[in-house]
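Q: Joint fold for the lines below.
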Amino acid sequence: MSVFDGLKFRKVHSPVHDLDPRVKFIFVLSVFVIAILFDRLLPLIALFLVQVPFVVVARVRKEWARSLRGASFLAALIFLSNFLFAWWGANFKATPLMVESAVTLTLRFVVLVQSFSVFFLTTSPDHLGLALEQTRVPYEFAFAFTTAVRFVPVLAEEAQTIMDAQKARGLELEKGSVLKRIRNYVPVLIPLIVSAIRRSLELAEAMESRAWGATKKRTNLYVLELRKGDAVLLAFTIGLIVVSVYVRLYVQAPTVTQLLGL
Amino acid sequence: MIEAENVHFSYPNGIEAVKGVSLTVQDGEFVAIMGQNGAGKTTLVKHFNGLLKPTSGVVRVDGVETTKTTVASLARNVGFVFQNPDHQLFSETVEEEIAFALKNFGFERDVMQKRVDWALKLLGLEKYRKTSPFLLSGGERKRVALASVLAWDPKILILDEPTIGQDHEQKEKLRQFIIQMQTQKRTIIIVTHDVEFVAECNPRVVLMKEGKIIADGEGKNILTSAETLTDASIVLPQVAQVFQQLSNSTLPKNIIDIYEAKVLLCKALECKRR
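A: Joint structure:
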């Protein structure tokens, strides 16, 4: 469950936590787009480093490291498949460039995980819902979204209990062929889905008993306002986009292989 | 036999749920582990079938250290019924649900059929044999979960909160059933805070608080010591409360059994059985 832990919000006070979630989301989205924009190693390393200060300032280093560790398996898979296919395509001849491009694509994935991890680690589900609402997303959708986010850790915990219960009945998840192993998860998935549905029905009843949707126009206890820090981040994001687009269009970033003269 | 020696356990998030517990449960014993929510009861018993391995300390089941074997092989001797039946029911019919563990343990087909029939009968579920477990009521689902563990006839049976959501009749049946298991020399460990149920069963009581055992002994003595129980946020059983209130009389205070209470009170009132 380490991947989920790396996304779970914890209440800490830091300048990053206090930023407006809308601006933070724009930043994350920009990082996402820029990461896709570049297919060279150096710009992606730069993009990775740009986010490190956020992690440090937000004091979420441990959780962030955990989310990266959780993503390491997929990262390894991305590296291997990219490298192997390139190697296969080139008639089984490996070149340094192949390694570099595989590393690049892996780093792109890591950058994406990192940015989303920082976003979710520093944004409470309540803030997120508020942000959606104030960007005129219908309240029903905003609520469904925040509820889904909020229930991820709950479901993860429940999955663990269910796995324990089935293991106690002699189920061995890691036994057998690949197909058998997938089938082994049926006794875990069915109770998980059933209980998620049950829980959602109960939640719906509980909400309705508390007058959910009674009035068309809801008011909020907290209202999001853009502050100085948000303006700084917004300016930084715009700067980042401008520089990235400029570099992408007019400067050809050299590959590390070229720089090392390999 | 289950032996726990100075067991400590911390969850990955750093919370230490069990802080140095030593406990021995002999074969054929009936033990109730009690304590408030978060006292570490469930965490402790999850060590007994290897679901959790101690952070430090040792847990041995029949002499085998739980760290040196798998949950599946421990489960053959240690049946564990979870608190919430919805965390394990998944089959299309009750019958298949009960056969699930038997398949995992590699029982022969005809043996499996016999065991399923036996378990269904034991818990009065025969008429639901072909019903989907999801269509049953909460109490019935709980019984299916119990049947699905009993089917392989484990030597040691752990029941986590068996009385939650059960009406009085079912509780009484459960009690009868536990007595029956005991006559067959099965070891039974229940985790509960249903003090009345424990008072009726009168097992050995292990009281936990904040990850430690604060009392261990005969139910009769522990469930009547008001101070210890208050410390563990447990209320005295009603019968015990009455005898505590009668503290000025010559009556003993450590009474939890209704029949015993009646005899003593009758004697005090000099009434005669008709």
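Q: Anything notable?
A: The radius of gyration of chain A is 22 Å. The mean pLDDT of chain A is 87.
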